[in-house]
Every structure is written in C-alpha cells, then in structure tokens.
Amino acid sequence: MKLVHKIIILTSIAFLLNGCVKKEILDDINLIEAIGFDYAGEGMTSGTILYPIYQPDQPPENKTLTAKALIKKSILQDIQLQSANPIVTGSMEAVLFAKELASKDGVLELIDAFQRDPGVGSGLYLAVVDGEARELMEGNYGVRGNATFISNLLENNIDNEDLPKTNLQKFLFSYYQEGQTPFMPQLKKISDEKIELNGICFFKHGKVVETINPDQMFFFRLLVDKYSNGLHRVQTKDGEAAIRSIRSTHNFDLSQHSPLEITVKIKVQGIVNEYTGNEVRPDQIKLLEKAFTEEIKEQSTKLVEIFKEKQIDPVGFGHFVKTRTRNYDLSKWLESDLQNLTVKVVPHVMITEAGVIE
User: Fold this and answer.
1) Within a 10 A sphere around the Cβ of 159, how many other Cβ atoms?
2) Where is the Spore germination protein N-terminal domain positioned along the sequence (predicted)?
C-alpha cells in the first residue's frame, strides 16, 4: 500500500508542476528569429525584430517591427506596443548591428541583454552589417525565411569557407578573456534577394576599430582556427591553381621571453583541383607549394602588424604569453607589450594530389 501511495503522490505532483508551465500557441505569438540594431542619432538606438508569419503550402512571410529608444534595453518593450501578440525570443538565430552603431556606441550594452536571457542559446550568431540592419532584414532571401538564410549563410562559411567559428558564446569568451579581443563577421545587402559575407570586424572595448576584406579572411582563419575543408587560389609564373580540400592546423611557441617572440607554425595540406598551366608536374607542385608558403607568411604577417597598429589581439597572443609566463601582467598588453612583440610565421604547405587541368 505504501508503494501505491507514493505513486499517487508523485503523479499528483507531476500534474501540478505541469499546470504551472505557461503554454504558448505558435499562432498566438510573434516568435523573433532575428533582431537588428541601427544608429538613430546621438544616444538613440533603433531596433528591428524579424518574425515569420506561417501560411499553409507557402514560404513563411517575413515581418518586421521597428522602434527607437534612448535606453537600449527598452527597445523590445517599445516594439511590443506595436504588436497584437506577445513577443518571444526563444527561437532567435541572429543579432545584427549596423556598422555605424557598432563603431560609435558599441555593442556590449545590447549583447548584455541576450546573454542574460535564458531563452537565448549561446550558439546565437552575431554579425555587423555594412549598411543598415533594418534594410538588410527587410529583404526576401529564401523559402525558409530571412533569419534562417542569414544563419545558414554564416554556418556554411564557417564549415566550408574562410570564416572562423563565431557565435555569441565565442564573442563573449574572447571579450572577457585576458589577452584577447573579439571579432564578428560582416554582412552586406547586395539586392532584395542577395546578401554576402564581405569581411570580418574587430572590436576594442566593444567598438569596431578595424575590418578586413574577404581576401584577408583566409589568412586570419589560419591564425585563429583550423581548416577542415577550404579553397584558395595560388598564382605562379606558369599559371594559377585552385587548392581545394585544404586542411590546416596551427600552434604557437614562445621562442623568446625577453624581448617577447612568438613563432606561429602553420601546417596546410591540400589538393590541386584546377590548374591553368599545361601540366601539373612534380616541379610545378613544388613551385605552387613555395608560392603558397610565401603568400601565407607575407599576408599573415601583415595581419599581425594591423592588429598591433590598432591595439587589438583577436589571435590571443596575450593569453598565450600569460599561460607560458608565471605571474605575467596583462594590464598593459595592448598598449605596450603587444607593440614590442615579434611574431614569426612559419608555414609548411604540402600538396598531395593534382586534379583537373584547364
């Protein structure tokens, strides 16, 4: 009998707890999938939410609502005044910041609201918009909705192209990490049906201070992330080759303490998929490997010099030095020690196969 009583009590508690959960019907809420922020004048911020309207046998209709506010955390409350249904953040895929806003006011106060929201996942994508966030969100980019298109665009470039892994969690980790500064991808609206990834923005104290173009992204990823499947074109005097299926790794070595010197060893392995020359002979392979090695060394070193000039450290050299030096003080890293740091990039390129010849 005691066992029966326990079962009855546990079942009753389960029903009571279930009754405490607030139920929300999809048709009765506005499920935010993306939100964008624009600069709206001195101290003012404009926020735009993107939510879908689902229709039978049709792609979702992209809907937006916009409000301006002096206090950034009240933007969603102001947008709610325009909505007939409750606004819910549990399905957000992307947060966008207009570059003007990210450069002048910064993004930290806005990001803080999302890191405190238990309904927002840490895998949320963050991106800077080259232009206005609202204008970009009001396009029509695919049958699965604008937010999903933006999310898939970033995910594809992380998995198959030159964008290092990035999301809300990684941005905050880099921001709070001693000896490292964060970055975000940059998006640009090309037309009402097309968006492109056109760079990476780097932050200092929560504000954009530098941007690199797509041609530089490949070399930045070599410094901060691994390649499991990439593509790069290499030019020699005999022709141009497309190096595909690129795999890469990197590691740091504190080769000297005083003055500070870090050696960055980069290993790259790939396949010649296309070549514009007559024949990919072994000697041509060696020329391609040499040209690729020199390009990696030159372009990666240029990036390091840009970071030193802007007093930012997205690679995390400072954090690495701290882990290798007892009681190291990072308080003046960006302004002083980083400027005196010597970084030697040592690439090793190996081309294993040759494919199509044009």
Assistant:
1) 11
2) 23-188
